[in-house]
Amino acid sequence: AGCGSDGPQGGPRVETFPITGTVTIDGQPVETLLVVCHPVEKGPVPTTISSFTDKEGKFSIGTYESGDGAPEGDYKLTFKWGQWNMGRYGGPDKLNDRYTDAEKSEVTVSVKKGVPIDLGTIALTTN
Question: Within a 10 A sphere around the Cβ of 21, how many other Cβ atoms?
């Protein structure tokens, strides 16, 4: 398995719909915060549905490509504030894993066919 561009990631694509929003921590936007959509029920997509925030805290969820959205379904969102190191994202979560457990997440989204979603501002805290 490599990083080639021999076609869509994960096999045949299912239709996706935009999910956007902004994340703040203690009232301030943060860059490179990982936002992940976890399907409530197993779906047809065998890949991670996620996005990183930009310097204004804005994100646009992607399934197959950056910003292409997510398939229809219900999701719980998790958040991790790590860092890039030698091309990999990780390191200790600056939020102490407070928002990384999908089972405990209170941030949910229901994606409906043809309906773009703007989650507005999601306010997280460091303590």
Answer: 21
